[in-house]
Amino acid sequence: MSVKLTGDNKTLKKMSDPKIFTNVLKQNAVEMNEAAQRNAPVRTSYLRRSLIFYMAANGLEAGTRAYAEYAKYVELGTRFMDAQYFMYRALQAQKKQFQIDIRKAMKKR
Question: Is there a contact between 20 and 59 (Cβ–Cβ < 8 Å)?
């Protein structure tokens, strides 16, 4: 997921405080990870347990990573199996919430 910030100088100066962005990003990345875990198909629960939240040291990047070797095949499908899109659905749902949360955080400042 990429984020593009647009607006007047006053609005962009509010975002210069990294804590605002970092807190909203972390909250939304954790929620996206939980949604991906709920959406993941379960046979042995390994795929669901392999979904891990991560956040970069600079606080400007966060997300979910699947450590199960076969996660990409479940997500995108193969010629023998339909795609499940468990990560994509979580991302699409969280993208809308992220925009709402950023707007709320900006209004509080």
Answer: no
